[in-house]
Every structure is written in structure tokens, then in C-alpha cells.
Amino acid sequence: MASVYISKLPTIVHALAVVLFCTVTFTNAIALPNPRNSERAPSLAGYNIVNLRIEGSTNTIYEAPIFSGPRNVTTPSGGTHLCDGTNDGANPTPGNTCTDALDAASKLLRFPYDGTYDAEFQDFFITSISTSTETATEFWGLLLNYQFTPVGGCQQEVHPGDRVLWAFNAFNAMYFLKAEPEVVALLPGKSAVVTVTDGTTGVPVAGAEFAGQLSNTEGQVTITGGKPGVNVYKATRSDSIRSNAVVVTVV
User: DSSP per residue over the chain, as a string?
Assistant: First the structure.
């Protein structure tokens, strides 16, 4: 079956799809520090851009790059504490962390989050983000590049381009779905294949819903270009964490 991928189309189409994805679909932007904020103004040491995704119980709360770095983090239940990667001696020098990224996104899109603070580990235990709050059996989990972090969010430093995932009910999830390619461009009537895998292990995932279809035993779904336009899809399965977004542009 004929396929047309973004690499075969002009670069401007790729750029347009990414811009539409970040600015129209999710209305997100990179959170730059305010130079008038005396707490951040002295230095940008330790700041970088990571890819942050927050998957709540029923929706994606945030999915976009975020610029963040060492800071004081405040939660209603935990108070104010430094979050810079040196917490509990986890790293020798301050740097950007998973919780710093969460905090920056919260300020950017103005969604609330909460967490208790453990003085022994000098770290927050996140209990609520937006409207998704932990229960007796469902908790927030933290993954870096699709792997559970061995330490808390203020101890886990991140590097440019890392993929940070805060996922609700993470410890009961069968898979952490990953859909690729993330950007697809099609001519009307032409087709492309999107593959759904478990981001943690890389194994194909069957039975995941994507664009109204279920992935086969190889994790594949074939999509066909219809009317010109831009659509954003995610792979979902009832026992798994929904995937990253895939931007499909029909030109």
C-alpha cells in the first residue's frame, strides 16, 4: 500500500504541523523565566528544555517542551522547599529536575498540583495534578524516557531532550503506550502506518485504539488521508497509559 511520510514532503509542511500541534491543539508554549523575578534573575545555570507530558485520569493535562530549572517549589500540603537535584545528595551540582518541569508547566497553564514533603529524602510526593487526585489504590508515577525513576522528582535531574512523564495510576498500568511516527503527512487517499509499542520495553501492543482503529499483533494501525487538515490522535487502551500525541496532516 502506498505511503507518504513527512520526510517526503517539503520541510515547511513538517514545521507547520509542529507549530499547529504546539500552539493550536494544546495551546502550550515554552515557559521562559521572568527576568523581573528576583528569585530566577541572577542565573540560568541548570536550566534546559525537556519534553514534558502529564497524563491524568481522563485527559492529557500537558504535552509540550518546557524550559525549567532549579527553583523553590511550593505545594499546599508540603510547603516551600528547594528542588534542584542536590536533594538528599542525589547529584553533586544543581540542575533541572522532573518536579521543576512540572512546576513550570503548572505556572504556564495555571493548573494546580499538590504533594506532601518528606524531610528524610528532601523530596515531594506528588498526590494531585489538575483534577486527578490519588486514591487508596491509584497514585501518580514518574517516568524518565519511559523508565520509572529510581528517585523522587526533585532528586532526578534531566537533560535537554529528555522525555518526562507524570502518569496517574502508573503502578497499575500494563503498558505505557508510545506511538510513532509522531508527525505524519499524507496526500488525500494515501496511507501511512503508525506503530504502537510499550515505551518501557519496546514490544508491540495489540488492541490499542488509534484514530478509530485497533492496533494489530504487530502494534500497527494504517491511516488513510481524507479531507485536508490537521488532526491529533493518541493511542489508548483501558489497562494502559495513553500515548504521546501523533499529528496527522492531510495536504
Answer: --B--GGGS-HHHHHHHHHHIIIIIS-----PPPTT-TTTTT--TT-EEEEEEEE-SSSEEEEEEEEE-SEEEEETTTEEEEESS-GGGS-SS---BHHHHHHHHHHHHT--EEEEEETTTTEEEEEEETTEE--SS--EEEEETTEE-SS-TTT-B--TT-EEEEEETGGG-S-BEEEE-SEEEE-TT-EEEEEEEETTT--B-SS-EETTEE--TTSEEEEE--SSEEEEEE-B-TTSB---EEEEEE-
d(CA 13, CA 57): 33
Judge contact between 57 and 239, C-beta under 8 A: no
**pLDDT tens string 128-180:** 999 999 999 999 999 999 999 999 999 999 999 999 999 999 999 999 999 99
- Burial tier of 57 (Cβ tally within 10 Å: 0-12, 13-18, 19+): middle
Closest CA to 143 of 164, 121, 159: 164
Residue 4 has pLDDT above 90, yes or no: no
Q: How far apart are CA 80 and CA 123, in angstroms?
A: 11
Over residues 19-54, the pLDDT tens digits come to 343 433 333 333 444 434 434 444 688 999 999 999
Query: With contact defined as beta carbons under 8 Å apart, do 65 and 51 qualify?
Result: yes
